[in-house]
Each structure stands twice: as structure tokens, then as C-alpha cells.
Amino acid sequence: MKKGLLLLFCLVFALSMSGCSNDNQGASGTEKNGEVQLKMWAHQGQPKEVDFYKKRIEEFNKEYKGKIHVKLDIIPSGAGHAYEDKINAAATSNGLPDVLDMDGPFVGNYAATGILAPIDDYVEKKDKQDFAKSIIQQGTYDGKLFALGAMESSVVVFYNKKLLKEAGIQAPESLDKAWTWDQFMDASKKLTKNNVHGLTMHMDLGVGEWLTYMGSVFVWSNGGLLLNEDNTKADGYVNGPKSVEAMNYVKDLFKSKVVSVSNGPTDFEEGKAAMMLGGVWLIPGFEEYKNLEWGMTYLPYSKKKMSPSGSWAFGVSSQSKQPKEAAEVVKWMSNKDSVVEISKITGMPPARESAFKELPEYDKLPKKVIKDQVLNTAKARPATPAYPVLTAKFAEAFQAAALGQDVKKELDKAAKDTDRELERFKK
Amino acid sequence: MEPVTQKTNESRPLPTVSPKQKKRKNLFASYGFVSPAMILLFVFLILPAILALYYSFTNYYLLTPEKMKFVGVENYKRLAEDDIFLKSLGNTALFVIIVVPVQTLVALALALLVNQKVRGIKFFRMAFFAPVVTSMVIVSILWTFIYNPDNGLANSILNIVGLGPFQFLTDKDQAMYSIIFMSIWQGAGYQMMIFLAGLQEIPDHLYEAASIDGASAWQKLIHITIPGIRNILVFIAIVTMIAATKLFIQPFVMTQGGPLDSTKTLVYMVYETGFKFRDVGYSSAIAILFFVIVLVISILQRKFIKESTE
Questions:
Q1: Where does the record locate the signal sequence feature (chain A) (predicted)?
Q2: Are A221 and A144 found together in one domain?
Q3: Average pLDDT along chain B
Q4: How much helix, strand and coil, in percent to the nearest 5, is found in chain B?
Q5: Taking CA atoms, what residue in B is nearest to A3?
Q6: Are strands A68-75 and A35-43 parallel, antiparallel or unpaired?
């Protein structure tokens, strides 16, 4: 009797353990009453953004009633890598949803490893042309389209109007008058006083994606590249003479003490820094600082005018059994209505040119700066499967420059590690 | 009547169970009792360890398990040439070498302090223990603010004494020491509690006898207290060492291994390589080597302690 009980207990225990993997969390694409059931993941961004995702999917379900039904799960993204770790884990255990969103520069890695399915067949050419070039760039890998986003992003130079006036500096008000690197350096120096730095570059965000996102612009603007044109080689590019020169400019900014490596997260808002290289997503937060009179101007340039780009984008997982219906969801989430609405909610620039017409605030300063950059100077980070290594190593090199280290040595390391990683994906 | 019946009951041989069968039955029951723990250990500890050993000889990329290929000792060869690995090893060693003795001594000192029979001493015990029950992630975030070179608490306090300002986490030569200091502050309360339990086990009459013999406070410490908590001291040294080699959360939250890899530890490198870079093969090789290192240190420590206790 006791023996039997024990055996039963062991059996139940063993079964429950093996049962973990058979949970019905995985993909998906099942049919119920003729209605295709899809699963979708979205990362937990700002609360308003999450509300938008939920609302848009509800509307989708109403519109496609009887045909497609989407169940949306919001996945916490934690300090940055939690959402990605979840995708990685799901990919290896056959647990991916039909539709998922991902940060732009990771599309290449997910496409190369077969996590994403191409969506060219479902997207009309004309529709594709409406997207900002940089959004198509970030969603394309190996000539095929894998992801479409609703939001664009950009980095601009925010400035404190009062402090600039005191120093007698006029910030450029049109793209063709944008500051050169030297002018920018001069302005920063003039604005640096006892307790006020001329500039903050948000080094408080740590050695992460921000440094690559914001930092690669220096390389591009100086005529350099992170990888060669077809994204197959790093040596001679990320550590090429133009890139080294660009990083040395960054090093000089820090060396001349116009910008601090240990800035606080809201130095600009509190008036402790006169200018800031910051993402446009910071704008809604400025409202809390009543005393702050802020303006925006274009990123400074060396040889070419460049600006960073990229944001979260939607794609179809390769594990979906209903890719056509899943692509409908991707298109819905990035159609003009979605793009306009999310832009209004988050303050991020829209991913479509046509959407700018619905958003008149982008026609005049200060937001005109963002529009000009998105449509004229934006460049996506390289869509490469080696991106996780490239971005980490480049960010480390950027930090090394900020700390006054030998730039060439650090960039050489980045090139070596990225090239080894690229080897892995060569057929 | 009663005792008689009891006696007959006892003397009656159990008819169906032979000693051999009984032994087997006991064996089955004991296996039954340990099986839940064994299954858990096997699934979550032994199996992953075996898999890690296997993966370390492959080029397993996290997202493409189907393309996994056997590559021999390739990963280990790469380890031998990897500067960052050597640096991580050095950083981990530095942390262990400083933290184990210092934290043990600080904990002992705290325990001696809070072992006084003074009113309100419970408050101090609680205060010293509070960091231990706070999540390491939260403590790390708080200390990131404290260590801020421009407007952090640490520089403000040091400024009063006329020191600083220090760069702390943003300086490659100070970052590791900043983490070490904060880790000791966070962890010492735990060892203090264990020491305290040990101190209270030492009988008072030994101290009384020593006082009568005219022993000084220092002599009492060396000849009564330390020998009295000897076993606890050994236990704490081993536990602290094992915990210290696993340093991860502090660099993960506070510095991301930087600046310039100065706070990158072995476990951080395993995480970074395996999850961020998705290179499970190489990451496993680091983990295996890490395991071997900890194993060797543990064996040496055991041997050393055995010899000294004999």
C-alpha cells in the first residue's frame, strides 16, 4: 500500500516534470470555427505604448471577426535583455508565437537564424515605398523583407534656450545650416562653465545599445562604416581610418571636458548640461520640468549629414503555420492608422512618409528637425547576424574613447570579434 | 494481564518478512524518499553540467541548435588566446582574494560588537543584517547612485573629510574596488549572524576563569573566542569563497563588466557569451574551466583545513 503510494508519487512527479515542455504555449496558427487563431508577443514598453498595442489588436480582431483572431501577450522587457532571452528560449523549444515584435537591429540576426519568415509575398510594392527608407533597411536581410515597424526614431541635439542665449550662440534652424563637428565642438566649449557641462551624451545608460545607436553616426558622418556594403566584413571598416578618426573626435569631446562620462540621467533637464545628444523619446518627459526652455537642432556632421534610425518592428515567426494571416497582423500594426496613432501617443516619429502629412507639428520647428532627419539623413544599423557581437564591441570601444583610451586598439578588437562571428554564418 | 500479552506480541516472529526482505523494503523506501531531491538535482544540476561538457566541444549557436557541429578542442584553444578571459579570471581572483579575508574579519568584528550585553543592541544586529535581506539587484542600483562621481553620496561624505572626488565605477582602476567595498558591506551581515550564534555557544565561565587569571581582552579573544568558533570560521571561509567566485549581479547591474573589462568576471563572461552573443559552445567551455578551477581550489582548501585541524 505504502509502496504503491510512493511509486505513484514518483510517477506523478516525473510526469509533471516532463509535462513542462508539452505546455500549449507554443505556436499556434490553429483554427477554431473557421477563425484562424494567432498568438502575438509584444515587449512591455511605456504604459501608453502597451495600451496602444492592446487597443490596436482589439480593433484588428473586430475588423477580421470570423477570419482571424489574435491573442496578444505583453512580455516584460526588464533591463533590456529579458525579452530577447525569452525569444531565444522560445525559438529553441518551438514556442514562438506567430507574430512578434523585436528591436530593429536584431532583425538580421533573427532572419539569419531562421526565427523569422520573409514577408515580401504579402506586402505590396507600393505600400513598401511609403515607409521611410531606413525602416525598410532595418527590416531587410539578404534582399528579403522580414519586418515592418510603425515607429521611427532619431537622435537630435537638444539645447537649453536660456543657456545658449547667455553664451550668444544661435543653433541652426535648417538642415543645410547644420553645425559641422568643429562648430559643435566650439559651441560645446563655450557653453561649458563651472557647474554646467556644454553637452551630455547619456553615458549613464551604460555600455549598451544606446552607445552603438548614437555612436555609429559619428563613424558614418565621417565617411566610415561599421561593416562593408554587403555586411560581410568588419576589418578595415569598423577599425578603418575614418572610423578611428571619428572615435578620436568623440575622445576629444570628453578630453576637453565639455561632456562628462559620469553624467546624471537628467542633467539636461535640470540645467546641468546646456546641450544633449538625446533620443526623441525623451520629449514627453520634458513636461515635468517647468523651468526648462528647450529647443532642438540637427546632429552635427563631418563629411556627410547622418542620423541614427530604427525602432521596434513586427515580424512573422518561421514557426507559424499561418504566415499569410500573421502577415496581415504585421501589416495592420504598421498601416497608416497605426503609424499615425502610435506617433501621437509616444512622440516617436512615424515610420511612413504619408503619415507625416497627418501630423502637422512636424512641419515647423522644433519637430521639423526630426522629420528632416528621418526622411533625409537616417541610416539603419547594419542588418547582420553578427549584430549582437558587433554592437557590444562597438559600445565598448565608444566607452573606451570616452575614457581617453587608445581608440584604434579597441576598434581592432571589435573588428576581430565581429569577423570571427561573421565566419559562423558563412555558408 | 497487560505485560503478559505485550511480551507474547514481542516474541512472536513476524511471519512473512525475512530480514533480507525487510532490508530490501527499507532500501526501496529510502530511495523513494530521496528520489524527489535526486530527480531535481539530476535535471537541474547534473544533466546541465554533462550537457555543458558536451556543448563545450561543439559550435552550438543558441538560435540554431540543428546546425550544431562537433569542433573538438577549438573552443578551448580560443580560450587560451582570449585576453578577456584572462582578464575575467584575474578580476574574479582579485575579488575572491580581497573579499574572503576582509569580509570574514569584518563580520567577526561586527559579531563581537553586537555580542555585548547592552540595551538596544538588537537594533544594531538588525541594522547590520538589513543589507543581507535586501535584494542584491536593489542594493546594486542604490550603490550606483551613491557612487556617482558628480552628485553621489560617497563623494559628498569623502569631501567633508577632505578626500576625493573619486570616479568610482567609471574609472577602470577603481571600479572593482568599489564593487568589492559594496559587496563586503552587503554580505558581512550574514556571516556576522553565524558568528554571533557561535559566540553565544562559548560558555561564560571560560571568560570568568580567564578574568580571574588576569587575562587581557586581547588574550581572551585569541585563546578563548577564536578557538571556540574555529569550526564556524572554517565554514564561513569556504562558503564566502564559493559565493565570491560566482560574482555576477554587481557587475551586471552596476558596470556591465566595464569600464574596459575591469569588472568582467568569469560568470559574467559565461552569461555574456552564452546569452548576449548566443555562443553556447564557447560559453560552455568557459563554464567548464570555471568549474575545474573552483573544484581545484575547494580540494586544496579542504586538504589545507584537514591538515591544520589534525
A1: 1-21
A2: no
A3: 85
A4: 75, 0, 20
A5: B29
A6: parallel
